[in-house]
C-alpha cells in the first residue's frame, strides 16, 4: 500500500496539527515501514493454521468455585430509597 507525504499533510490538516516538512517526511517513512510490515505479514501462507487464544500452550489452573460471602441483597435493598421485586427503582431520566 502506498502512503505519501501529501496524505500525511492532509491527515495533519484534518487533525489540526502543524508539522514541519522534516516531521512529515519522518512520519511518512515510519507509516510506510509499518504498512510494509503489514503487507509482509499478510503474504504469509496461513492455510491449515489453527487460531490461538495465546501463543503459549499453557493451561490456567482454576480455583474451586466456592461462595465466600453471604448474600446481602435483602440488607442492601432495605437501605435503598425505593426497591421492588429485588430491583432498585430510580427516577426516570429520559423520556
Keyword list:
single chain, 95 residues, mainly alpha, two-stranded antiparallel sheet, 3 helices, 2 strands, flat
Structure description:
The chain has about 100 residues and is mostly helical. The chain has helices at about 5-15, 20-40, 75-80; strands at about 85, 85-90. β1 (about 85) and β2 form a beta hairpin. α1 crosses α2. The protein starts with a helix and ends in a 7-residue tail after the last strand.
How are the SSEs ordered, and which strands pair?
Layout: H1 5-14, H2 21-42, H3 73-79, E1 83-84, E2 87-88
Antiparallel strand pairs: 1-2
Helix pairs in contact: 1-2
Mean pLDDT: 90
- Strand count, sense and closure of the main sheet? 2 strands, antiparallel
Report the structural category.
mainly alpha
- Helical run tally: 3
The gross shape turns out to be flat
Sequence stretches where pLDDT stays below 50 over 5 or more residues: none
Order of neighbouring strands in the sheet with most strands: 1-2
Percent of residues in helices: 40-55%
Fraction in beta strands: under 5%
Give the H and E element order: HHHEE
User: Radius of gyration over alpha carbons?
Assistant: 28 Å
Distance from N terminus to C terminus (CA atoms, Å) equals 49 Å
How many strand units? 2
Amino acid at each position: 500500500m502506498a502512503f505519501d507525504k501529501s496524505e500525511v499533510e492532509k491527515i495533519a490538516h484534518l487533525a489540526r496539527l502543524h508539522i514541519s516538512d522534516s516531521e512529515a517526511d519522518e512520519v511518512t517513512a515510519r507509516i510506510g515501514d509499518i504498512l510494509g510490515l503489514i503487507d509482509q505479514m499478510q503474504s504469509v501462507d496461513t492455510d491449515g493454521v489453527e487460531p490461538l487464544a495465546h501463543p503459549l500452550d499453557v493451561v490456567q489452573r482454576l480455583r474451586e468455585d466456592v461462595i465466600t460471602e453471604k448474600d446481602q441483597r435483602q440488607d442492601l435493598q432495605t437501605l435503598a430509597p425505593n426497591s421492588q421485586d429485588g430491583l432498585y427503582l430510580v427516577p426516570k431520566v429520559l423520556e
